[in-house]
Amino acid sequence: MLAASDFSKRDQALTPSPTLAVSKKAKEMAAAGVDVINLGMGEPDFQTPAAINQAAIAAIEADQTSFYTPVGGILPLRQAIADRASSYSLAPIQAKQVTVTTGAKLSLYVLMQALLDPGDVIVTAKPYWVSYAEQAALAGADFRAITPNNAAMKLTVADLEAMETPVKVLLLNNPTNPTGQVYSAAEISALLDWAKDHDTFVILDEIYGHLVYNGHTFTSGLSLQELTDSRLIIVDGVSKSYSMTGWRLGWTIADESVIAAMNKLLSHMTSNPTAVSQYAALAAVSGDQQVVADMRRQLEDRLNRTYDRLTKIPGLSVAVKPAGAFYLFFQVAPAVLAALGLDSSQAFASRLLEEAHVALPAGEGFGMPGYLRLSYAKDQAVIDAALDRIETFLAPASAAGQQ
Ligand code: PMP
Ligand code: GLU
Fold first, then answer.
1. Quick one: which of 254, 326, 283, 317 has its CA closest to 98?
2. Separation of CA 20 and ligand 2 centre (Å)
3. CA quadruple 127, 128, 131, 133: dihedral positive or negative?
4. 56-110: pLDDT as tens digits
5. Quick check: pTM over 0.90?
């Protein structure tokens, strides 16, 4: 076994993704024969729609997948992404304003490498998706996560005005992982205007944009600002809306100078996203969108049922009902933690996994201790069984906490 100090300081400072780590632990327990319920991972449990799989098979059989593709992806895919975005953007999007990456996660990583020098300030709202902080750290940036002053924990211009330093990058996630909150058109518009006035880049992560529920609407940044000569950058992908997490396919839409800066990096990192996944994504983006509508409707149903049940469990609370994505980010009452003899939500998550066999990531990884995240992108019977276990696990502590 080599020592930690044998590795780079950069690597030593890094924390492995907590969402992936909790799922790994759950899978290890399951392999050892434990009946674990894993609601830790943010991925839909639907199989990739058959028409998308068939398009990938057809591309292989047509000998289209043996060789390197252009760094930023095949033109038909970039064109299809541009065309789809043009249906709701302020100005038409062109293929040269798109680069395709190995998941949206790589788009985000490469953007941080391309935009941030050591010490540059990047701002986001707390709680935030786990990889934002570590990716910013890998760029040597000064990552500032602000706790918004509202129950929905949505960032506002007032929060940004209170910053005393110039902000190089504003990182927004709409709909938000882990809170499931959706910014209104007015809210996003105000943030984009502020960034424009301050020459601040905006990375707007819209990976959950097609997954909004109960009459809420999603407003893409593309419908509010033009991209040409602009610092607005959109990140999206097929993982969530088409249930294609394993295909590893995402993209960035931005001014062509941003795309060129990213492609320079990508040419030394991946050369290109996997060819067969690009053909699958092409079928997803340009095919019948009914598959997305069907999955969205099922997720909406799961949100409503899971929210109703979870918020009735004594000791657990959700500040504002989510309107998008597929997570419930709930608080564990401090009195309940104390009654269990635990001093953190991380310790709670560990006990819950060991004793109740339910895997959930703790709020610590999202910059917000005291909370846990539950992904409801699972079969309702599985979610209900997990909630039964959580309720049973909490019952003695809730009773003690109420005394
Ligand atoms: N952004 C957010 C907010 C996410 O939750 C995820 C989940 N993996 C990603 C980006 C990256 O998605 P992917 O790499 O699977 O495209
Ligand atoms: N984005 C998902 C999540 O938040 C997938 C896991 C990951 O990439 O961190 O769980």
1. 254
2. 7
3. negative
4. 999 999 999 999 999 999 999 999 999 999 999 999 999 999 999 999 999 999 9
5. yes
